[in-house]
From TrEMBL, chain B:
Quaternary structure note: Heterodimer composed of CysD, the smaller subunit, and CysN.
Top-level lineage group: Bacteria
Classification lineage: Bacteria, Bacillati, Actinomycetota, Actinomycetes, Kitasatosporales
Record-given protein name: Sulfate adenylyltransferase subunit 2
Gene name of this polypeptide: cysD
Enzyme class: transferase
Amino acid sequence: MSTTTELTETTLLRFATAGSVDDGKSTLVGRLLHDSKSVLADQLEAVEHASRNRGQETPDLALLTDGLRAEREQGITIDVAYRYFATPKRRFILADTPGHVQYTRNMVTGASTAELTVILIDARNGVVEQTRRHAAVAALLRVPHVVLAVNKMDLVGYQESVFAAIAEEFTAYATELGVPEVTAIPISALAGDNVVEPSANMDWYGGPTVLEHLETVPVSHDLSHCHARLPVQYVIRPQTAEHPDYRGYAGQIAAGSFHVGEQITVLPSGRSTRIAGIDLLGEPVDVAWTTQSVTLLLEDDIDISRGDLIVPSKDAPPTTQDIEATVCHVADAPLTVGHRVLLKHGTRTVKAIVKDIPSRLTLDDLSLHPHPGQLVANDIGRVKIRTAEPLPVDSYADSRRTGSFILIDPSDGTTLTAGMVGESFASPEPVKDDSEDDGWDF
Amino acid sequence: MTTTVSTVEEGTHTPYALSHLDALESEAVHIFREVAGEFERPVILFSGGKDSIVMLHLALKAFAPAAVPFSLLHVDTGHNFPEVIEYRDRAVAKHGLRLHVASVQDYIDRGVLKERPDGTRNPLQTLPLTEKIQSEKFDAVFGGGRRDEEKARAKERVFSLRDEFSQWDPRRQRPELWNLYNGRHAPGEHVRVFPLSNWTELDVWQYIAREDIELPQIYFAHEREVFKRSGMWLTAGEWGGPKEGETVEKRLVRYRTVGDMSCTGAVDSDATTLEAVIAEIAASRLTERGATRADDKLSEAAMEDRKREGYF
């Protein structure tokens, strides 16, 4: 049959956008969806119909993502909206997050699974408080790639100097926060400059368009630097005539890679054995890596159950009952010192108590407020937690999956707080020259 | 002008990147295993439609060589395509599964539910579904809903808490961070779980092709006697047939979705193979709901309203 490029398997990029309607975020998202032909005729018709009902002459592309009645009525985005689009090169999952200050929790949620964040700036206003907040969220959540989209270039005469000044100021700020990579792109979402097609109005810019960058940014890492981690989700024991003694430890590899023959240790018990086989959803393999879902077969029959963490014996994290972390409080009720909670880390949920809240952080200017007593919704702060059982935690800087946790209210199950173990921000990377790069990487 | 602090690792060459289908498959398997580890009585909503067939396939892979630790639940509108019911029963027998049926017809016969003037039974499924969940004490209910289907679904969580009336409150959803799903619920409450949240219609079809998954034949082009109502090609059956002025004709069609026969439309198609179906979808200018579901055309918030009341 006649194969089109759309039918082949591609890679997947999860990314987030942050910014407010005023920055043109909806226009940017609408254009990415529209120009990649991901908005289908009936959806566009529905948006046009709804826009007309509201007395608007042009279709309001924000209505594509504002899916809830309350959002449409109030003209605001309340919640993270997930959008899906594809080009022949890549599949995209976009977490479209509202940028208002009271919705920090949504930005944190969107950034938690993102490999890239697009931060929007209005070229006329430059770096503002909200921009600093968005950069801080990307830095806290250790999003590997940040794109600074300097929008509305058409309204500043497409001047290189305006773009360069904003890009330089932002990059300096983000670098200080430890953001490893910033790619600045001058765009006009409304006119379409440098979103999908290169701009005819900015000859001085030689870098990629937003879409080109999204299509080519690396989505995997050099795994040799990663600590291999497998949280055990489930023990598979068929106990059938065909498989009387099969015991497989099922889970999704959270970081790094495992290979057959490797010496592993099970935490928190500390027992060790070797990997006898790896079953990759029906296919035996010699090596498996993040984020594959696998079943490990081990040489010795040792006691392993859901909640345990399998790690290479030569690279085991320490276990601890005292955790220091940066958290974002996501619930309406406050988090207080002395709060008894459940802590979910990997596949293990344990009782815990909030021992101390040493400080609260203001994201706009990174000022610290010592001993706030409590954290309310959308607050970022430092906490000290004591757990009822020892946990094998990594620092979030080393492993986003095994360095993160959530706190849960034991009485009603509410998700209270998102936590990242260790220091809030990475130390700035030394400036290095990358001559291969032809983009405007600052 | 290129001052840089970037630490670009390997350029665009990504040796350890998973293909998009592998990434989506791994994520769905992870979700199935989390539910198996944290819940007492999970059940998979199984209609015999392609999304529920893909869910079952993923569940089988997640626990092999052991059996799937869940049963199946079919909410039967009574307006079924015979080919789909046949498929359902074959799948249940082949994998040694237990099938629960919640029957809309029973509720109508008992006078609990009344037939709607338009004859559509999709909105009537909510009560039998909710009562079956309560009487069987199911605590996790897998649905095949995808966020790309509809804009109210775009804000749905993977783990979605429902109260004892199965109601969904979009403003009280738990934020979902990393892949740390929170399945805590009180007695009487349950969690709807959507392992295909991040899949698109095209992903589902590509996966069906890659995994060589068998589907009911009505998903492929075939000659069928149909009549036009509200811009859709419907098939006559026990549920009813053409009214005055609606004429039956023979057309080459296929179904993009499978549901209540009275409001699920066929589309003109000559796609007789999986490859042809995928090419057709890749080129399509309509969403599958827009093309085939009369009930979603009712209002801007039709899906949100039904979801709030406990619909899938």
